[in-house]
Amino acid sequence: MTTTWRLRFELSDSPGALARVTVRLAASDCNVLALHVIPVPRGVLDEIVVRAGVGVLPADLIEAVRSEGAKCVGITRADIRDLVDEPTAVLRAARLALTDPDQTGEALRQVLAADSVTVGEAADGQAQLGEWVARRGWARFTQVELTRAQALLDLVDAPAPSMRALLTDDGAALVLRPGSASDEDAVAGLHARCSMRTMFNRYHSGMRTVPRRWLHRLLSPPRGTTIVGQCGDQVVALGQLIHTGTPDCAEVSLLVEDAWQRRGVGAALLDALASDARAAGYSELVAWCLPSETALVRTAARAGLAATTRREDGLLRVSITPRARALKTPITTDVPEKTR
Q1: Organism's domain of life (predicted)?
Q2: Which of the four pLDDT bands, split at 50, 70 and 90, describes residue 213?
């Protein structure tokens, strides 16, 4: 049975040194699949991914490398992700963290090729990156890797214009902002004030209120984001963007209190969710409506978003392209930083 290994070693900077290592590995029935050169203060580290032949042990690989004068730094099993070039791997990890912030630790682990990444304080030989601790037993982290990981964290934590002011058609002022756990009571109040029709259109069931245990997931979905519309101390609208598991596609849903419907709130909420979707790399938003309910299609049109529909499983499937066209009248304006 063949096994794929990842080796990292220091090699003297002389012509043909790396070529001799690869020849030695080939003589040991190993196929070199990938090569990376990592700058370090003393020069460079060479990292190769090899598929070893039947019966070739890790010790055999280490001996083959050392026989050409290399200092073996570490060896570990490799998988298919190690065959992706470094920029592509980092971009994929960044997308994972941006799409689902709960996966930031996993994204860091992939970028660092770490054994584990957890929250805590680092011990000797471990790397501290903000609140994260990275551990790797097979090789020490290089400064290049740590800089790359910190850049990923900077990207995920980069400030965004997450709060936006909104003036409705009749001049009422609202704020659109990310939902949080502290909004549970306000969101419960929103549902209590909605009519049975509004609740049925949103949840496709005859419930009058949402169970308390739902509120946390509504405000902190594990695979998405939630935006609330607030007027005074009341939440009057709620929108969600949830990753469906299909690449480039997310599910979108809206709930607007009856008294605030047909005043531009839904369009502004959908526009904000589409902006988040574009930032996360989604190319399609999907919503499921009752066959007779076309309000979301009108809302998308008002937000400047193209939408198509089709019947599927007894419901109306609305497909929305999150790329917006220019609107004659802007729906929202960013809240100045100093007023947040």
Answers
A1: Bacteria
A2: confident
